[in-house]
Amino acid sequence: MTRVLIVGGGPAGMASAIALAQAGVQSEIVESSHDWRPGGIGIALQSAPLRATKQLGIFDDLLRVGRPHRVIDMCGADGRRFVELPQVNVNDADDPPFLGMARESLHEVMAAAVARAGVAVHLGVTVADVSAADDDVTVMMTDGRTERFDYVVAADGANSKMRSRMLRDAPELSFSGQVIWRAAASTPTGLERYTMMIGGPIRLGLVPLPDGRLYLWMLDSTIGPDRPPRDQLLELFQERMSRFGGHAPAVAQQLNDASQVDFRALNWLIVPPPWHAGRVLLVGDAAHTTTPHIAYGAGLALEDAVVLGELAGSGLPFDELATALAARRFARARLVVETSLQLSRWEQEPGPPNPAAGRLIAETMATLAAPV
Ligand SMILES: Cc1cc2nc3c(=O)[nH]c(=O)nc-3n(C[C@H](O)[C@H](O)[C@H](O)COP(=O)(O)OP(=O)(O)OC[C@H]3O[C@@H](n4cnc5c(N)ncnc54)[C@H](O)[C@@H]3O)c2cc1C
Fold first, then answer.
1. Which of 31, 243, 247, 289 lies in the 20 to 30 Å Cα band around 111?
2. Which of 51, 156, 269, 302 to mutate to test the pocket of ligand 1 (most atoms within 8 A of CB)?
3. Which atom of ligand 1 is the closest one to the Cα of 7?
4. CB of 298 closer than 6 angstroms to any ligand 1 atom
5. Closest Cα to atom 51 of ligand 1
6. pLDDT of 1 higher than 90
7. Based on the number of CB atoms within 10 Å of its own CB, is 81 exposed (0-12), middle (13-18) or buried (19 or more)?
8. Spatial separation of the C-alpha atoms in residues 111 and 297, rounded to whole Å
9. What tens digit of pLDDT does each residue of 110-129 get?
10. C-alpha gyration radius of the chain
11. Range 293-321 average pLDDT
């Protein structure tokens, strides 16, 4: 039986484990963190990635933990809506085109499916050494085990150590020029829809989640990539929030401690094929890291896994499987990364929002509606 080691227990690693199990391939996951908690606060899955979750058998569970959004309200900084953006649906008419949820909810649904698939997850463990032969790969792990696998799936995220170890010519992550502030809050009374507010070089997103929770994000082109000192974080965040009206003040007043505010630079990367070397194959953010402008990074990871499972089920030898995976996935991943980066660049330009942005998003979503 084929045996696969998956490095990384994020969306890409967990989805790969589920898809491989569906294909009859045995895998195990090594995850470097000890507590296996997802980073970030909220996450949204677009319609085409939701199609992938149907194939992975987790769609119904996600519906239970997610909040559907059929439109996004685009507003000025004063909170007044200037346009309603309907979201593209590629699934059944009743299915949500866009599902917002807490990061932990996505993690819990996926971790439960990994457990049902009988996949072992080794926490606090990573790869110490890899030695590839023609037909298999020997991996020394930091828990002292040395095991042979048919191949390794590197799903260890944007800062992938497996990428730098195996694909030395792969490009490095690049800073997009924007940072993102994020926070969790309660949804203020009257806020029902996903609301995006444009305040010059700063954009605020208020995403109602289930159970009265709210995911706040703020894209910011006015500050460098380094996290401000902790004693300035809240003040800088609140100064930016004070530029917004509508529901923003009711959210801002809930945030009064720096520990509630997450700050991170937005980076991007697209690895040109091949995505494999020495019987190690990159998937997810390790192969393509996107800024979140069209909320599609985890979506790409889920789709990668579905294609991986399909190819693994057809019994291809590793080199052919890995070549076919990158061939099937590269153009789509590049479209997501480049569209997101273009939107980021336009947002960094002075002046009013670039009128081409809406068209670019619509064209990209129409392309992404095609089956993977
Ligand atoms: C601000 C922001 C907002 C986003 N919003 C959305 C959104 O709304 N919708 C969407 O679809 N996408 C979104 N994304 C993108 C999404 O978060 C990523 O694309 C997704 O998490 C990638 O999954 P992954 O499993 O490849 O990597 P990760 O989620 O980074 O998971 C990697 C895992 O590997 C583990 N790991 C790392 N190194 C090692 C190692 N050496 N050995 C073992 N384990 C290791 C990590 O601990 C982690 O558990 C957003 C991203 C950002 C930054």
1. 289
2. 156
3. 43
4. yes
5. 292
6. no
7. middle
8. 19
9. 999 999 999 999 999 999 99
10. 21
11. 97
Token pair 């061939």 is found at 327
| Percentage of the chain exceeding pLDDT 90 | 99
| Residue 284 pLDDT grade (very low, low, confident, very high; cuts 50, 70, 90) | very high
Phi, psi of 129 (to 5 degrees): -155, 150
Stretch 352-356: mean pLDDT, rounded?
93
Alpha carbon 246 to its chain centroid, in Å, reads: 28
Peptide bond into 274 cis (omega under 30): yes
For residue 182, with 0-12 CB atoms within 10 Å meaning exposed, 13-18 middle and 19 or more buried, which class applies? buried
Q: What is the Cβ-side half-sphere exposure of residue 211, based on CA atoms within 13 angstroms?
A: 8
Q: Which amino acid is at 143?
A: D
Alpha helices in the chain (DSSP H): 11-22, 47-56, 59-65, 103-116, 161-166, 230-241, 248-252, 297-313, 318-348, 356-368
The DSSP 8-state label assigned to residue 152 in this structure reads E
Close Cβ partners of 52 (under 8 Å, ≥ 6 residues apart): 15, 299, 302, 303, 305, 306, 372
Which pTM was predicted? 0.98
Domain residue spans of the chain: 3-67+96-173+268-348
CB 290 within 8 A of CB 339: no
Superfamily of domain 3-67+96-173+268-348: FAD/NAD(P)-binding domain (3.50.50.60)
Does 39 have pLDDT greater than 90?
no
pLDDT band at 101 (very low <50, low <70, confident <90, very high): very high
- Quick check: CB of 167 below 6 Å from ligand 1? no
Token digits for 152? 């390794």
Q: CA-to-CA distance for 74 and 355, rounded, in angstroms?
A: 13
If phi > 0 it is left, if psi is from -120 to 50 it is alpha, else beta; for residue 98 that is beta
DSSP 187-240: PPTT--SEEEEEETTEEEEEEE-GGGEEEEEEEESSS-SSPPPHHHHHHHHHHH
List, for residues 9-25, the tens digit of each pLDDT value. Answer: 999 999 999 999 999 99
Distance CA 28, CA 16 (A): 10
Q: What's the rounded mean pLDDT across residues 158-167?
A: 97
